[in-house]
Amino acid sequence: MRSYLLFFISFLALYFIIQFVSGLILTATYKPKFSETGGSSVHLSNEVALGGSLGVPFIALVILATLMAWLVVRMVRKVMGK
Fold it and tell me: Where are its TM segments located (predicted)?
């Protein structure tokens, strides 16, 4: 039961850390397309783009967080001598 709890907590923590870092990278590398506005800045203040493409697919983040959580559980078991 303890290993399941450890896996669940480490999975959640790692998933949110990966999401946060991914969001930081996407925000830092975002370059708006001014060509779509026709070179006018009038439309920029009136329109907000919501949604769009996902930076890293959801399933890739889940798989990565799962693998990392599994490694954390294995490392803890190795340290504890089980």
Answer: 5-28, 48-73
